[in-house]
């Protein structure tokens, strides 16, 4: 059934032959050497030609037996030699992914040569087979479109990277959404010896849009048909994968199967493991034509150069046009058309062993593809139910999938030693910047964090945004970690406008967030919230990097720079849009301040108006934000004036001022040197002032900070003296940089600091 099983059976058969054949032979000879119960000598030296018992016929029999003995001994020597070779190769095969080269697995693409190989004792386990060179690049093509498919691609790529020992070149046929997500992901992932090329799927739509398709993959499910035309003309072969694939072995083993193709074989496919193409699933079930059970196209080996010479484009188009006249549409997208072509041209296909595409759909025969975990190569979640599919061993498969789903992708940034790789400008710049740091510096870890490249997955969930016709839209920008997740629903209830959030999570936490969001009616009803995952790395919380990521990916001309533990007043979104027009924010450098308050109560009857808020202030239910621990942070807002203000009023910058503001999307980014707790917002407001932004307080706007346990970073700040020393050092360096950049006007920041 499997290549490895065949190897073991042949090994066992050869062993038995070595033991059994000589034993039988010698029993036969030994029995033949007795006559009337007496031993008869077989040695010519011991023969007695003059004995009456000795005859010419017995002499010939002995000579014949002696010849047979020599033949058996020669066969035994040959078998022992073959066994010793197999044993010496055995550990390399058992090591699996640690082997440097990969023998090809036997398929059923050429049954005659397979039988000939077995007869000759030269099977895939024992014979010399073409292998994948250590540094040979493996090409993989994947069609990917949309937000959900982009998440699936990451899990697939993780499973490939986990096992791989060769350079990889991914060819991603992606729509604009998937390209934006995956380009950023791979750019920030920085995996050595991995190259990514994108091909615009939207440009290919016209090639296949004429084919009606009922499959849930839509038009993108037909694009594998045009890969010969889409991929580079000098690319000779490629492995094509669906996004719902999980690898359980090194992809180089699959790449090696190309060497098994013979004659006109140009497609490597696994037989379909359901009864779909047999046409007996229900009454009047009429599938597309297929050879037997047909073939599944979740895993395809394509010999592109030969396909082009065969005029593949013309071949599949003519077949599709002919079949659509009676079938009207495809049910399984490209798979139907591939099978129709193969039905007419069976010589095109090399049938892969079924463990290269273990299909976990309902009513599948996939259990016949494996007997043990070690037999598994590729798992294909080809049911719309995905992880909820019914299968005898689905728990095992689900756990294997979840292993890669939650696996720390940072651990896959391993070098392929001995393989030259293309120069990566980003990687080289990073190494140069890190090499310039002094590792003996007590603040080295703080400085290093500024240059750390965090793997980033944009738009982790589906996102839709329709621009406002009056061009006044405002996006709420915030960042959070797992311990603030409970604030999301409340913010969505208070703010109906677009939101951009950067979440600092591990791979496992990202999946917990996904399950949380998908289980929330509030979050699932909102499609104008962009969730951007920045994966954990290092010991500090990169607060300003997170803010920059959220700021960079807004779709509106204005943004409200907030924090996740603040609830905006009801109606603030519409109020800010009106203020943007009233204060001409489009043509002036203004930062509109939303006054911040706080409560110490976990349960708060949120004030629905300014009058109600003032009443709660007077009763001691609310307070101006941080008045008891950090008065300077918001004192310049002038809360006394705000109580009676009916029109916006201007305030001046003061030392340590850190209000929450509404600005244009082109405002400066936050300074990344500040991580964890301390000076992260203060530095940003200082730079806005240096760039001559005018601070204007909005008289009828407010936000309220909700209580929560202290963050880990503020605990470190309070308990670690070195942390505070490094923060002070970074602050001084920032002020010096400001002076160099903004000149004489920036000297006030140094004096203000000294006087405060």
Can you put this structure into words, describing what you see?
- In the N-terminal section; belongs to the glycosyltransferase 8 family. In the C-terminal section; belongs to the glycosyltransferase 49 family.
- With 756 residues, this protein is an alpha/beta fold.
- Among the domains are: 217 residues, Spore Coat Polysaccharide Biosynthesis Protein SpsA, Chain A, CATH 3.90.550.10; 294 residues, Spore Coat Polysaccharide Biosynthesis Protein SpsA, Chain A (Alpha-Beta Complex).
- Helix content is 40%, strand content 15%.
- It has 25 helices and 25 strands.
- A nine-stranded mixed sheet has the order 13-16-15-14-17-23-19-24-22.
- The chain is elongated and about 115 Å long.
- The N terminus is likely disordered.
Q: Looking at this structure, what is the CATH superfamily of the domain at 456-749?
A: Spore Coat Polysaccharide Biosynthesis Protein SpsA, Chain A
Strand content: 5-15%
For the largest sheet, list the strands in their spatial order: 13-16-15-14-17-23-19-24-22
Distance between the termini: 80 Å
Structural class: alpha/beta
- The tally of beta strands, per DSSP, is 25
User: What is the C-alpha radius of gyration, as a whole number of Å?
Assistant: 36 Å
Give the CATH class of the domain at 456-749: Alpha Beta
How can the largest sheet be summarized? 9 strands, mixed
Count of DSSP-assigned helices: 25
CATH topology of the domain at 456-749: Spore Coat Polysaccharide Biosynthesis Protein SpsA, Chain A
Helix content: 25-40%
Estimate the mean pLDDT confidence. Answer: 82
Q: Could you say which overall geometry the principal axes of the C-alpha atoms support?
A: elongated
Could you name the ranges where pLDDT drops below 50 across 5 or more consecutive residues? 1-6, 18-55, 83-106, 110-129
CATH architecture of the domain at 456-749: Alpha-Beta Complex
């Amino acid at each position: 059934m499997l290549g490895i099983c065949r190897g073991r059976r042949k090994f066992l058969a050869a062993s038995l032959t070595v033991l059994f054949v000589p034993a039988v032979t010698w029993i036969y000879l030994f029995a033949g050497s007795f006559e009337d119960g007496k031993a008869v000598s077989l040695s010519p030296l011991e023969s007695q030609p003059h004995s009456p018992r000795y005859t010419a016929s017995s002499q010939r029999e002995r000579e014949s037996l002696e010849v047979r003995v020599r033949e058996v001994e020669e066969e035994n020597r040959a078998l022992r030699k073959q066994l010793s070779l197999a044993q010496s190769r055995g550990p390399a095969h058992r090591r699996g992914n640690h082997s440097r080269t990969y023998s090809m697995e036997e398929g059923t693409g050429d049954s005659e040569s397979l039988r000939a190989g077995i007869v000759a004792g030269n099977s895939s386990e024992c014979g010399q087979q073409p292998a994948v060179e250590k540094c040979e690049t493996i090409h993989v093509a994947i069609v990917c479109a949309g937000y959900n498919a982009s998440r699936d691609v990451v899990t697939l790529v993780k499973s490939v990277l986990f096992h791989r020992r060769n350079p990889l070149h991914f060819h991603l046929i992606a729509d604009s959404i998937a390209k934006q997500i995956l380009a950023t992901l791979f750019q920030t992932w920085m995996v050595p010896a991995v190259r990514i090329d994108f091909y615009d799927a939207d440009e290919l739509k016209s090639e296949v849009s004429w084919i009606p398709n009922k499959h849930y993959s839509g038009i993108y499910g037909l694009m594998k048909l045009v890969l010969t035309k889409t991929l580079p003309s000098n690319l000779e072969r490629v492995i094509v994968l669906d996004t719902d694939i999980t690898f359980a072995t090194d992809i180089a083993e699959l790449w090696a199967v190309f060497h098994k193709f013979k004659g006109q074989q140009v497609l490597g496919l696994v037989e379909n493991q359901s009864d779909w193409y047999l046409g007996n699933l229900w009454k009047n079930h009429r599938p597309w034509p297929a050879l037997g059970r047909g073939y599944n196209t979740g895993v395809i080996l394509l010999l592109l150069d030969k396909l082009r010479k065969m005029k593949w484009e013309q071949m599949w188009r003519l077949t599709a046009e002919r079949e659509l006249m009676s079938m009207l549409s495809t049910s399984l997208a490209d798979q139907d058309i591939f099978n129709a072509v193969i039905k007419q041209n069976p010589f095109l296909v090399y049938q892969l062993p079924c463990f290269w595409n273990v299909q976990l759909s309902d009513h599948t025969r996939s259990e016949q593809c494996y007997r043990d975990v070690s037999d598994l190569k590729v798992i294909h979640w080809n049911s719309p139910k995905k992880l909820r599919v019914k299968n005898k061993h689905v728990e095992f498969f689900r756990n294997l999938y979840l292993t890669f789903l939650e696996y720390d992708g940072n651990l896959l940034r391993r070098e392929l030693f001995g393989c030259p790789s293309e120069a990566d400008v980003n990687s080289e710049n990073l190494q140069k910047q890190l090499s310039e740091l002094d590792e003996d510096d007590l603040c080295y870890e703080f400085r290093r964090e500024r240059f750390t490249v965090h793997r980033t997955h944009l738009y982790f969930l589906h996102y839709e945004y329709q621009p406002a016709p009056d061009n006044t839209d405002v996006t709420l920008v915030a960042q959070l970690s797992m311990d603030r997740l409970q604030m999301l629903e409340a913010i969505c209830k208070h703010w109906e406008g677009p939101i951009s959030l950067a979440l600092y999570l591990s791979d496992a936490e990202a999946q917990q967030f996904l399950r949380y969001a998908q289980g929330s009616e509030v979050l699932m009803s909102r499609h104008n919230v962009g969730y951007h995952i920045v994966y954990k790395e290092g010991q500090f919380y990169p607060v300003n990097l997170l803010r920059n990521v959220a700021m960079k990916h807004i779709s509106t001309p204005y943004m409200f720079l907030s924090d996740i533990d603040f609830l905006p007043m009801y109606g603030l979104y519409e109020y800010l849009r009106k203020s943007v027009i009233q204060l001409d924010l489009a043509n002036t450098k203004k930062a509109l301040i939303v006054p911040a308050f706080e409560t110490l109560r976990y349960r708060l009857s949120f004030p629905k108006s300014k009058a109600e808020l003032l009443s709660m202030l007077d009763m001691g239910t609310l307070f101006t934000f941080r008045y008891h621990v950090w008065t300077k942070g918001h004192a310049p807002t002038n809360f006394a004036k705000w109580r009676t203000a009916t029109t916006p009023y201007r305030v001046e910058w003061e030392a340590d001022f850190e209000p929450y503001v509404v600005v244009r999307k082109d405002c400066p980014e936050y300074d990344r040197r500040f991580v964890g707790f301390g000076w992260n917002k203060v530095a940003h407001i200082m730079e806005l002032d240096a760039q001559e932004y005018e601070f204007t307080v909005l008289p009828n706007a407010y936000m309220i900070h909700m209580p929560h346990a202290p963050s880990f970073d503020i605990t470190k700040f309070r308990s670690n003296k070195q942390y505070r020393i490094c923060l002070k050092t970074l602050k001084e360096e920032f002020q010096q940089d400001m002076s160099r950049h903004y000149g004489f006007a920036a000297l006030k920041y140094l004096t203000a600091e000294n006087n405060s």
